[in-house]
Amino acid sequence: MFAAALRLQTVLDRSRAADFVAPLLLRLYLAPVFWMAGWNKLTGFDGTVQWFGNPDWGLGLPFPTVLAALATAAELGGAVLLLLGLAVRWVAIPLMVTMLVAVFAVHWDNGWLAIAEGSGLFATDRTMMATERLVQAKALLRQHGDYGYLTEHGSLVMLNNGIEFAATYLVMLLSLFFTGAGRYVSVDHWIRKRLMPVPQ
Questions:
Q1: For residue 27, what are the contacts with CB-CB under 8 A and spacing of at least 6?
Q2: Most buried by CB count within 10 Å: which residue of 29, 99, 106, 144?
Q3: Which tens digit of pLDDT belongs to each residue from 129-161?
Q4: Residue 19 DSSP SS3
């Protein structure tokens, strides 16, 4: 039994030859996420600044123009660098900061769930009330709209805007911070190979 477990471990260890795939997939997943977030901030920059600075209906942050510009630059520049696999460990830092701001300044009061669920471990009074509203919205659409057309490509849901997505992106970035961009399919790999060769 022990010998079989050792053989299996040897097989698993051989899979490390493809260990570059995981950071590559993380980068390819995160790049469009941050590009769209940064692009939306850039194209509506005045509104972004107002949202960052307004204490009544926004985040109430100090220096909103500076912080909005920094967040936009981090997300757009970070997306490009993630795609190229260039300076990935470095760019993970400001992107993690933006995710921490999103978690604590934007989503924290809404709990964990991004989409409202009426039951389950992470359901709250807020999400249960949201699902009640969703039932009413579906009833109205069935009565007064073309419900089949509206739901042809997906179910209607109620947004909860919890920390789920931001926390997931934060964990993905943290992984990239520790692993780097990965071998072979990243500029970082080839720079390191050229400038910092492993001694023989």
A1: 82, 83, 85, 88, 176, 181, 182, 186
A2: 99
A3: 999 999 999 999 999 989 999 999 999 999 999
A4: coil
- How far apart are the C-alpha atoms of 94 and 75, rounded to whole Å? 9
What is the C-alpha R_g of the chain?
Answer: 22
Cα separations in angstroms, 44 against 31, 48, 84: 20, 6, 26
Please, where are the H alpha helices in the chain? 2-14, 21-43, 45-53, 64-84, 88-101, 125-144, 147-150, 164-179, 187-195
φ, ψ dihedrals at 159, nearest 5°: -70, 135
Residue 64 near residue 98 (C-beta atoms within 8 A)? no
103/60 Cα distance (integer angstroms): 15
Structure tokens at 37: 């977030």
Residue showing tokens 């600044």: 49
Per DSSP, the three-state class of 70 is helix
In contact, 176 and 88? CB cutoff 8 Å: yes
